[in-house]
């Protein structure tokens, strides 16, 4: 699947987790598409919506809570992309991610991103990451069913 997105659509590689999860980009954002090899699931896992900044994310979370929509998972910070995230379920049960502060790839030739909180090294370029808890959420709790593939 990765080669289809890269060769046919021109997306560029940002990161890989283990040998089953790949992050691809079409602009300076760390990723616009991800693909996961799974023996259990088919189709889309979630859609993601970017908030302007942490304050915008907080305001939307407060709005959702006021209307009875609770968090499914988060808040947290992912390893790949280093973005702040929350996950919710929409009325049809689909997973929706709200995020902010995703890595910005400012050196396209090398794939380097600007420094972000939680980065393990600088400059941070594309790499294959270990499958571990910090990759999923640098701050702590995980959603175990979300890791099942």
UniProtKB/TrEMBL annotation:
Organism annotation: Pseudonocardia thermophila
According to the UniProt entry, its GO molecular function terms are: dioxygenase activity
Pfam families for this protein: Glyoxalase
Where does the VOC domain lie?
1-101
Q: Any keyword Oxidoreductase? A: yes
Task: Note the InterPro entries from the entry.
Answer: Glyas_Bleomycin-R_OHBP_Dase, Glyas_Fos-R_dOase_dom, VOC_core
PROSITE patterns linked: VOC (PS51819)
Instruction: Give the UniProt keywords, A-Z.
Output: Dioxygenase, Oxidoreductase
Record protein name field:
Glyoxalase/Bleomycin resistance protein/Dioxygenase superfamily protein
Is the Oxidoreductase keyword given for this protein? yes
């Amino acid at each position: 699947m990765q080669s289809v997105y890269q060769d046919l659509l021109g997306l560029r590689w940002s990161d890989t987790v283990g040998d089953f999860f790949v992050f691809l980009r079409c602009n300076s954002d760390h990723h616009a598409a991800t693909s996961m090899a799974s023996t259990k699931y088919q189709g889309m896992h979630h859609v993601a919506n970017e908030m302007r900044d942490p304050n915008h994310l907080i305001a939307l979370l407060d709005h959702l809570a006021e209307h009875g929509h609770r968090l499914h998972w988060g808040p947290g910070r992912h390893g790949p992309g280093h973005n702040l995230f929350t996950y919710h379920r929409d009325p049809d049960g689909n997973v929706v991610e709200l995020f902010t502060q995703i890595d910005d790839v400012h050196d396209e030739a090398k794939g380097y991103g600007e420094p972000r909180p939680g980065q393990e090294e600088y400059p941070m370029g594309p790499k294959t990451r270990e499958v571990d808890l910090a990759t999923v959420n640098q701050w702590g709790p995980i959603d175990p069913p979300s890791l099942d593939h």
